[in-house]
Amino acid sequence: MKKLLFFVLLLTSINLFAQEVKVTGNITDAATGKPVSGASISVKGKLTGTTTDSKGNYTLSANKLKLPFTIVISAVGFEVQESQVTSASNNISVKLTQKAIVLDEVVSSATRINQSILQSPVSIEKMSLKAIKDNPSFTFYDGLQSVKGIESVTSSLTYKQINTRGFNSTGNSRFLQLVDGVDNQTPGLNFSVGNLFGASDIDIESVEVIPGAASALYGPVAFNGLLSLKTKDPFKYQGLTLQVKSGLNHFGESVVKPQGLYDFAARYAKAFNDKFAFKINASYLTGRDWYADNYTDVSASTPAAQRGPNNPGRDALNIYGDEVTKTLPGIGLVSRTGYEEKDLMNYNVYSLKLNGALQYRFSNNLEAIYQYNYGRGTASYTGSSRFDLNNFVLQTHRVELKGSNFFIRGYSVEENSHDSYNTRSLAQFINRDWVKDLNGNTVTPDKADDTWFTRYAAAFNGSVSGVTPNSNSAARAFADQGRFLPGTPEFNAAKDASIHNYGLSGAGVFSNSKFYHAEGQYDFTSAIKVFELLAGGSFRDYRMFTNGSLFDDKDKRVTIKEYGSFVQAAKKLFDDNLKLTASLRYDKNENFKGSFTPRFSAVYTVDKTSNFRASYQTGFRNPTPVDQFIHLNVGPITILGGAPNNSKGLNVYENSFTSSSVSAFGAAFGKAVQSGTPFPQAVEQNKGLLQKASVAYIKPEQQKAFELGYKGLIMDKLLIDLNYYHSSYNNFILNTVVIQPSNPILGADGQVTTASATDIPNGKVHAFQLYTNAPDKVSAQGASAGLTYLLNGGYAVGGNATLSVFNLRNANPNNIAAFNTPKWSTNATFGNSNVINDFGFNAAWHWQTAYDWYGTFNGTRPGRVDAYSLVDLQFSKKLPKLQSTIKLGGSNIFNNKVYQSYGSPAIGAIYYVSIVFDDLLK
């Protein structure tokens, strides 16, 4: 009630001291005299604003606004201008000056308030609306690879993962992606699936990237950085926009001929009386996915010199089912015959995005928003296996109340995994559906693998009439009799049955998980005036549901609650040349101790366009819901999340042996028994080798980082951006295996009990894979440099380079997350949107050095990612009379076959043509 009374009094005071103001005018191009359609006219410091029509005319109704005030006029490709409104009726017509690129951008992510990018206290990159429109890549999201400091990994045509400053992965839970302030991660996967469920190219206004720890302002997910996507406001961007894009990929491939790609998008926005506005978006992208067809033999049990297509124990990287192996007496290691990924994965991928928003302005400084996003798509994802996110759905609802100095926002994120599945498991299950014994009878799935190896051994040893003995190929052919061949009705039926069977008995992935999030912030600066002060807080509630397929949630709920708050203060000193900023955030997850994450920064301004900066930043990452609550019994081992409540009643953390000590005991016990030592005595003699496991419950990862930088604009032509950082990390989340006996492991004297040691040879034990943290500390450092230069005639050239160095120190490599980052990465761009007669072009080149990729897909063993370069190029022609732009271009135009992570597909060229109709029905 107090808050409501406050707002009523505030609105009443505005009515008393303000009046209705109406501003009209015309906006034209100073160089050509032509009207500028779609120019934005907004009241400085307020929410009120409008846009020009196709003739450059506008009307701005600023009801109850106190005179005088300033309006800001901006448009893509032009310099921003300001004009003062001094009377209730004004006609303000402005001629805008063309600008190929505005180098002094305004950003908001660095400090959560608007400021010049030149004076940001930390490194920040921005892709503006003009950069998005001129992007030569197939989509704007693909074009992020040209941004300084960005690392990208492609798992699928519809799924690209973004990261900064090392510790890259195909599913990055250390990097936060926001779309209009909404966390875009899927609740079950715990990371954003690229732009599969994001926003279409024609609705994106800008993209901002913070490389490095951003937890001080954005909480636990922003451990490695932040990607913030902002869509177009329907008050500012009105009318109908249509995009039709068609392309081809799969050039020069032996398995598949060139295939069509299609991308359709439509956006319509309308404002009524500057009070109510809405927008609707629809986009659909579809095509044939990249093929993962690296058949390198990666068998860990076969010496490197003996690996290859003729290895009986072959384990090919992108063939699945051949991971099932057995060492046969007199023969050696043999693997089952697997299926190629192309026969298991759904390569007909698509991304459907539907979006709608309603916005209502109560006053010049109070606006309500409701936004709904529906995303559905198919993508391939490289994790511990290659997963098919098939018809996966992500929905978000967002409600927000905001003013110029505050916002209150609430949203929900809900997923439905639908027909998603694990291709590796799928191949193994199909392989168990058709095996016959030596009498010709089909065996049950639980006996299929052993029976197949029995058939193989019998054929190899000459026990099968008509089969050449001592021949691995002949033995395999005999063992494979009755095998379901890809494309046959039997194969398709077995595949479909396994995909829709969840848990241990099938390959299906089931999740209907969701989370609810509420946050708000308030800028007290205008009230305090002596210094800047910003404060905010957030609350999140995870509600997981996998129906027992991943969590122990068949009969009970798995929920996680976490909250956080922050305060940020800033003060300018020495004639406003030095700005000091301090931030402090506190976060608490119900399963862990609270974490404080401070950030301190200083920006020294030599002049308005030359700034030096220094900062100390901290970051932390809470364990994901899977890290905390996975409870999956896979037979000989149970995978158990590290939250204390997840192991309640199991006594596993308190009563278990280290796996290494059990191995040592088993070897010594076996040797003693073989030498004639009686069983009880052999146990007693060697039980001292057993060690009690001391595994801590899981806790957040930690990071500390220092950064120095410079950003300057020389003669309004040359932008220079330099930075160096050093980060240290500890408490990396990892897995460890322990062995739990049936009996208590320690007696009253603190020594290992005979009963627990006896459990081991008697098989009365169970293995657990526990989530915990490593005590090891590591560090990383890096530097980047970027230059952008505006040439005469509207040409712009840019380049950047990033150095990333990892220092393992004295840490155990098995305890540390993989760095997975090239030492050197470089980009160069060159373009002009209007060379002559509305013809333009833009080119981007990317190159990076080779490095070893470590991931769970290959059992954390290294796989080489070779050095590569990519060139993207587009030519454009504007057709003003048709209010359209035609673009002809290509991504990776030289068709280099590029692997961006080991086990993922090779990425080739995409050649495309597109046409965009803009400002229709305005």
From TrEMBL:
Keyword check for Ligase: no
The TonB-dependent receptor-like beta-barrel domain, residue ranges: 411-893
GO cellular component, one term: cell outer membrane
Compartment list: Cell outer membrane
UniProt topology in membrane: Multi-pass membrane protein
InterPro entries linked to this entry: Beta-barrel_TonB, Beta-barrel_TonB_sf, CarboxyPept-like_regulatory, Plug_dom, Plug_dom_sf, TonB-dep_rcpt-like
Keyword Transmembrane on entry: yes
Signal peptide limits: 1-18
Protein family: Belongs to the TonB-dependent receptor family.
Protein's name in the database: Outer membrane receptor proteins, mostly Fe transport
